[in-house]
Specification:
This protein is an all-alpha fold. It contains 16 helices and no strands. Helix content is 64%, strand content 0%.
């Protein structure tokens, strides 16, 4: 009877595994906490990420127990992910506050448990979601969720949002911070454009056009210069890869997409427009819109970066531990300029400095190795992929580049980091067998009879 139950058990485990991985991009960005006085939604998002990763990993173990596939350690992302996980674990053990490093800061919760969850999501996505119908569903849900988040932010921008009532500040959507709101949408924008270019029906084209409009205008009204630059960089990266690989495109749709975003940008930046910088449609006073009124400014960032370099100098190998940058210094020994800035900022506002301060140069090397391995695998795979898989690989790479550009000036959070790692895993999934050694030829069956040929 157990043998009869195994296929059903394996099928249920596989459904749960795929559902958890898809929910990362479909549910995590939507989670918010209306009771938060500072619109910090990172803690509930981090807990949801941990639960999804735990259920996905448990489902994978159950399926592997009933199946015979096993994990292929020759997959290109496996070794850098394992090395990075090892650096995180060692940094947690050697930190001055292992409990906080394990669980994370009370407001952010990006400690070891959340960081390991990111890596598990990346590895399992790369392994499990490579089938065409799963890729299409994953992309569709990512774009749909980003459209909902953008629309929610636009309601906040016009003062019509009824739940958390963001007043006198830039819209935060369901990400809790205007920079995170814009950065998340910058990662999703290349996927919306890709869906628009490749939709097979006019209904799909129309819905994708709505998504482009909402997402792009959401990026603009975030008033985050980092998000603006990231969206430009992501689109430029995608365009360059499409031209480089000579991917077939409908040029009429390309013109329509570019014209649509150009018109939205003109409506936003035109001095007399009621929708943009100088207009009266938004709840943000025009004098406060361009800037970081919910965050630190350029001069303060320089102070934070200088302090981060000092932390790296003091703890070069494994850093101070995950999510412990703010707690790594005695505030009483710092000048007033540091006390004021670090009292607001719990992050380094640079992804590479964040990794280096919390996991050391060893962790930074593992992170860079992971990203480089992913980009190299996608690059080598592009010429041999079908148009559909190539488009997803290109947009995944563009979204990841957008994340890396945006996080040079703003902190990554538990609302954006899982999307980055999921995109990285999806790009590796559609790349297929790239980076794996060729499988040995099958051995023909032998006749057991003596003397038989």
């Amino acid at each position: 009877m157990s043998a009869e139950m195994q296929p059903a058990e394996e099928n249920r485990a596989e459904v749960i595994l795929r559902l958890c991985l898809v929910m990362v991009v479909a549910v995590i960005p939507l989670i918010l906490d209306p009771a938060s006085s500072y619109f910090i939604f990172d803690a509930p998002k981090a807990r949801a990420v941990q639960l999804l990763a735990l259920f996905a990993f448990a489902a994978w173990l159950i399926r592997e127990r009933t199946g015979e596939t096993g994990w292929d350690w020759r997959e290109p992302l496996t070794r850098p992910l394992v090395f990075y996980a090892g650096a995180l674990i060692v940094a947690t053990i050697l930190s001055a506050a292992p409990t906080i490093a394990l669980l994370g800061d009370v407001r952010r919760r990006e400690g070891l448990l959340t960081q390991i969850a990111y890596l598990a999501i990346c590895g399992l996505t790369a392994r499990e979601l490579g089938r065409p119908w799963l890729v299409r569903r994953w992309v569709g849900l990512l774009v749909a969720t980003a459209t909902v988040v953008a629309g929610y932010g636009l309601l906040q921008y016009t003062g019509r949002e009824p739940i958390i009532r963001v007043l006198n500040d830039r819209p935060v959507g369901s990400l809790g911070n205007p920079g995170s709101f814009g950065g998340y949408l910058a990662m999703a924008l290349p996927f919306a454009v890709m869906v628009f270019l490749r939709a097979r029906s006019w209904l799909g084209v129309g819905l994708a056009g709505v998504s482009i409009s909402a997402i792009f205008f959401g990026i603009l009204v975030s008033y985050s210069r980092a998000a603006w630059g990231a969206s430009i960089g992501a689109l430029a990266m995608g365009a360059w890869l499409l031209l480089r690989t000579r991917t077939t495109l409908d040029m009429r749709r390309v013109v329509v997409a570019v014209s649509l975003m150009g018109l939205l940008a003109a409506a936003f930046f035109w001095p007399r427009s009621p929708l943009g910088v100088s207009g009266a449609a938004g709840v943000v006073p025009p004098s406060e819109r361009i800037g970081e009124n919910l965050d630190i400014g350029p001069r303060q960032r320089v102070l934070v970066w200088r302090r981060a370099l000092q932390v790296i100098r003091d703890r070069p190998l494994f850093g101070v531990g995950p999510d412990l940058f703010r707690f790594s210094m005695d505030m009483s020994t710092l000048g007033p300029q540091y006390r004021n800035v670090l009292g607001v900022s719990r992050r380094t506002h640079n992804v590479f400095l964040e990794v280096a301060t919390t996991t050391g140069l060893i962790g930074l090397a593992a992170f860079v190795w992971t990203v480089f391995t992913y980009l190299a695998a996608v690059w080598h795979a592009l010429p041999g992929l079908s148009d559909q898989r190539r488009a997803v690989a290109i947009t995944s790479a563009a979204g990841c580049v957008g994340f890396l550009l945006w996080t040079q000036f703003l902190p990554n959070t538990s609302g954006t980091s899982p999307i980055f790692w999921a995109m990285l895993g999806m790009g590796a999934a559609v790349a297929g067998q790239v980076g794996r050694p060729a499988a040995p030829p099958p051995v023909p069956p032998q006749d057991p009879r003596p003397g038989a040929r």
